[in-house]
From TrEMBL:
Highest taxon of the lineage: Bacteria
Species of the source: Sphingomonas hengshuiensis
PANTHER family, per the entry: SUA5, THREONYLCARBAMOYL-AMP SYNTHASE
Protein name per Swiss-Prot or TrEMBL: Threonylcarbamoyl-AMP synthase
EC number: 2.7.7.87
Amino acid sequence: MIPYRDASIAEAAAVIRAGGCVAVPTETVYGLAADATDARAVAGIYAAKGRPSFNPLIVHVASLADAERIAVFDDAARSLAERFWPGPLTLVLPVRAGAGIAALVTAGLDTVAVRVPAHRAMRALLAAVGVPLAAPSANASGSISPTRAAHVAASLAGRIPLVIDDGATQAGLESTIVQGGRILRPGPLTAEMLGLETAAPGGAITAPGQLASHYAPVRPVRLGAVDRRAGEWLIGFGAVAGDDSLSPGGDLTEAAARLFDALHRADASDALGIAVAPVPERGIGAAINDRLRRAAHRD
Ligand code: TXA
Ligand code: MG
């Protein structure tokens, strides 16, 4: 784990050029990045995460122009990109033939998920390597997403050579994913902000990686809790105080930024279970509740 600075970016770029993967912060969560045009490097991401290979990855690029080299944009997609990039928006678009994106990145689909991140460390790394970077969240598959370098180190210890530490991520939830004018995964950019609707769960269009059980703590999770039952760790919100609170003042943006850190801490406690206070569904609350439902789901 090394702090963000020019030297650490140069070191990370050398690992990427040699076909390795490194953990790097974005404005949403920490990502595990590798050269998206190098099939062996991408295989290394899947191996480090223990991820099922049917689950495609997001490709990160430095600019809309770079994105147009790997994906085919229509006017609606270009307008979203111009308004919200760099930022926590991922667009699923037809993959451009001959762009060199490894088939493992798209898991064999004819579409590719692409975004231009806003974080200084990820942007510096993209500039240094000059290739698109495939990067899923930097956690073992199915476990809680990382919003701090320490979360990455705990989840992937010994499986990756380098974690660039640049503090807690700002948004705290993975990017909003849009395909064909519908939101596939709610995120920091809300339906209201984008002027789009969220695809019905289980509808015709779904993100292949949107498994019901995801972001799952080891301990059982109980939602909508207004008090603590015996042996539980209570994560509060607003008027519901707990062992910890997502936001005592009931601020949803603050709650989103703190959600995964709160789940990591609850899971590291010696409690028998994790209870979470109700979070309103408005605005980014929809994305918070999406992640909480997945955390609570047991197959
Ligand atoms: O904020 C983020 O998006 C973070 C940071 C690191 O950029 N990345 C992230 O990646 O959350 P990951 O791999 O954990 O989630 C990628 C999601 C999965 O649900 C996957 O199924 C979906 O993107 N996805 C990727 N390619 C897709 C495609 N061609 N069609 C539909 N969904 C796709
Ligand atoms: Mg993930």
